[in-house]
TrEMBL record:
NCBIfam families: PRK04330.1. It comes from the Archaea. InterPro entries: Ta0600-like_sf, UPF0147. Coiled coil: none annotated. This is UPF0147 protein SAMN04488696_2292. Pfam families: UPF0147. Belongs to the UPF0147 family. The lineage of its organism: Archaea, Methanobacteriati, Methanobacteriota, Stenosarchaea group, Methanomicrobia.
Amino acid sequence: MSNFEQVIEECKQKLEYIANDNSVPRNIRRSANEILETLSKKDEPLFLRTSSSISILEDISNDPNIPVHTRTLIWDVASQLETIPVDE
C-alpha cells in the first residue's frame, strides 16, 4: 500500500467516526458519507478525489452547529488530504 493510500484509509476511518456520531448534526454526517464515497472512487484520479473532498470539508468546517471535537477532526482530515500532491 502506498503512503497516499494509507493517508486515505486513515481519513476514511475518521470520516466514518463522524458519520456514525449521533452528536453530530445530520447534514455534517451526510457530508462525511459523501466524502467517504468520493474517496472510495478508485476510477477517479487521486488528486480529483482529494481536492473535491477538501472542498466539502472546508464548507462543513464553517458550519456554526458543528461540535468542537468534530471540527477538529475535520481540520485533521483536511490537513492529511492536503499532503497528497496534485500531480500524482
